[in-house]
Amino acid sequence: MNNFLQFILALTVIVTFTKVGGYLSVRLRQPAVVGELLAGIALGPTVLNMMQWSVFTDQHLGELITHLGEFGVILLMLLAGMHLHLDDLVDSSKVAGLSGTLGVVTPLLMGWGICVLFGMPTHTSVFIGLILAATSVSISAQTLMELGILRSKVGVSMMGAAVIDDVLVLLGLSIFTALTSSQSTGGMGEILTILLQMIGFFTISIAAGILLLPRLTNWIDGLRINQGIYLYTLVVALVYSWTAEVIGGIAAITGAFLAGLFLSRTLQRDRIIEGVSTIAYSLFVPVFFANIGLQANARNITGDLIWITSAIILVAIISKLVGCTLGARLGGMNLQESLQVGAGMISRGEVGLIVATLGLTHGIINQEVFSITVVTVIVVTLVTPIILYKLSDKTLPDNSNPPILSPD
Description:
The chain is an all-alpha fold. It has one domain (64-278, 300-391): Up-down Bundle (Na+/H+ antiporter like fold). It contains 17 helices and no strands.
């Protein structure tokens, strides 16, 4: 079987498993994303080890699936941004700032502390703390869209806190890298350069998003191009994602979220959401959820590693819940809303995996520690929508796709 046939067979298996998993999850009155994540874990090396089946001989198949999944999370965050209003995000800046900041500091300190207690080296412990400080709200955004409350005060505050969290974690990662491996090049100068890059990216992207994108969207929509508005939207999302990581030094998903936030101000907002949702949820988003499970191998966690992993998982959940909840309370939210923000920030998702992979590549952590962090990321990503759903006073709809919200 040639490589292309292997690819389409793999996609068939992945999409079928995730959609069935999502359907069964909804039937059990749980968020669809829980079933989709479990389907990915079932297909991964923990259970079925799909990529090692004899029919799949293409060595690049896993990498290709990963790229499709990364595109899926870009579309997911684009849609999350389009469901929000920029004014709402500005209004929630106090809660987002406090929750995002304490949501980084608390896991960093608790993660470092628990790893030191287990006898890990200081630099490894600090790096694991950075992994636990990361947040990826793509899972939470999906759950909030299913519940129809993404545009609530909780949802808006959570998305704003995630952006701040992303900036702080990547800035902290840059500082850590500069201090541990770049003493000869002048660490503070490198840190200042990274900070200026971030400021420059946000300044240019915000200015372009407010002044240019609405006019450009109207012009593109008036041209006689087949499905031109959807193609244009994908290009904008990809450009923002690319510049966020390459120029701004922050995660690509943050750029996609910003692109959606600015496109939500256009007259074509509802039409774009409907079209992009079809593209995203029919293929790319299911691949993203499945790929998280495909990267986890719980079989590597044996012996004493079970206790270490269990402790880190508990710290990962408690630290985010405590830190972000406290930040939201200090920002003026009531206890239930604050707990919902804290629960929504628990997921590490692809951001945690990116940081962990970077640590393995640069020799900061070994393969055992990498396996621990990957399993931790998977578990906390899985429990996030469950906790968030339990803390919500909403009920799930009878379908597995998020509703398309009205512009009001």
